[in-house]
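Risk register update: the risk of archive-format incompatibility is retired. Evidence:
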Amino acid sequence: MPEIPTPVRHRVIIGEGADARILRVTVSLITQREGCTALGHVVGLYAKLELNGDDRDESVAYFLSRLEGERRWVIDAKFGSDGYPHYAHGFGERTSATRSIIAPVARILDDLARALGLAEHIGERVPLVLAARRLTP
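Archived output:
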């Protein structure tokens, strides 16, 4: 299974002009995964990343999934820098309203999934098709 040997770091600019903010994005894990949810067996991609503003040392941890056929990355869990659980669901749970990650961060994850050979088709508004399955529990 291809893995990220070291965390991948990016900077993204959100907004324009005086309202622009720079976010640091650190992806520490992205892999194919399968699981069992209230809706049955699911397969897809799983990622863990941290986001923080360029002006702050504290980061927020996100756990995300994108199931086969989905067109966006969904936030499964979000934890504050102090460990506070802002939002917490298991891998691939879709029984309540879903929240998605912002487009510039989603593009980073899409590019990583492609580069690691985890996805055959992926992109903004492109349904996920996994590459030959190398699933982790």
